[in-house]
Amino acid sequence: MKKIAFSILLVSFVFVKFFAQIPNNDFETWTTTSVYQSPNDWDNLNQITYSSGIYTCIKGTPGYSGASYLYLITKTIPVKGIVPGVAVCGEIDTVTYKPKSGFPYTNRPQFLSYYMQFMPYDPSDSSSVKILLTKWDQTQLKRDTIAFGASYFNSMAHSWFYNSTYLNYVNGNNPDSAIIVISSSSSIPKDGSYIYIDNLQFNGSVIGIDENNLNSNSVSIFPNPSMGVFSINYNLSNNTEVSIKIIDVLGREIFIPENSTQSSGQYKKEIDVDLPSGMYNVVLKTGNAITNKKIVIK
User: Fold this and answer.
1) Where exactly does CATH 2.60.120.260 map onto the chain?
2) Which helix (H) or strand (E) holds 49?
3) In whole angstroms, what is the distance from residue 230 CA to residue 255 CA?
4) In 10 A of CB 253, how many CB atoms?
5) Would you give the DSSP letter of residue 226?
6) Which CATH number fits domain 213-297: 2.130.10.10, 2.60.40.3080, 3.30.1840.10, 3.30.70.60?
7) Separation between Cα atoms, residue 192 and residue 194, nearest integer Å
8) Topology annotation, domain 9-209
9) Local structure of 235: helix, strand or coil
10) Other beta carbons within 10 Å of 235
11) Structure letter (DSSP) for residue 217
12) Exposed / middle / buried, residue 277 (Cβ in 10 Å: 0-12, 13-18, 19+)
């Protein structure tokens, strides 16, 4: 299997929506111990902080929809130092704060959607949502990565908004398990950083991959943040049709430049939009490949 960092892929997909098999995806079910509450099926670090009377995983109310949401916050814990708010759909390692296991999952979704709010202590910290799909290789006795995705947030949003984390596929097989990790801080946590999240759901269905010279990591947006005028640069390996969409935090398509067929080489598209300040998704589709990038409008 190829290393993720050097995988160059073309992903073909269909927009088929299916219900997520994510346990307690809306954080409506919590278990109460003698001193704290934890969301069912989501391991967290309250088990190592409660003795200090401090909790990094909290039941927030009301939810975006429903009675509750997941509230993770980074706290300074006596003796232990600064501990991030981390929740894993599965099992967490209380020493490394990393996931040990996930939950059974056999589909190939295109992205994970959710509603969220967040505020890192300062721009050097970032909240995050990460997904990993894997499959056990019985011959090699190891886990193969099927797909991975991550979104990082280092500004702030104090009202609920819709966001998506896209999955990058590196293997054509179906997974047998998934891990979702939500964190209020980066690897260098800052006391006070937090994230609220609710209504997680996998969407779309990726039906196959073909290797090609198109590298999704070659896309760039400049400047970012922008006042509304920016350029999208992409390296095309062959002649293909290119389409661009700008989607707001509610998932609405708010700007769609005219599609065009481009020759191989450096693709550059100048965008001039008049949009309210905030975060937007720029979705670039080239042939059968799709790339999602964030743009902040000031």
Assistant:
1) 9-209
2) helix 46-49
3) 14
4) 11
5) B
6) 2.60.40.3080
7) 6
8) Jelly Rolls (2.60.120)
9) strand
10) 15
11) G
12) exposed
Report strand pairing: 265-272 vs 229-236.
Answer: antiparallel
Give the integer Cα–Cα distance in Å for 46 and 56.
6
Residue in the structure block whose two tokens are 């059968």: 288
Q: How far apart are CA 180 and CA 151, in angstroms?
A: 12
Tokens of 287: 């042939």
- In degrees, rounded to 5, the angle at the alpha carbon of residue 157 between the alpha carbons of residues 247 and 98 is 95
Backbone conformation region of residue 83, classed left if phi is above 0, alpha if psi is from -120 to 50, else beta: beta
**What is the reported pTM?**
0.69
Q: Which two tokens stand for residue 175?
A: 């997974």
Q: For the sheet with 265-272, list strands across it.
A: 220-222, 229-236, 265-272
pLDDT digits (tens, 9 = 90+) for 57-108: 999 999 999 999 999 999 999 999 999 999 999 999 999 999 999 999 999 9
Q: Can you count the helices (H) and strands (E) in the chain?
A: 1, 28
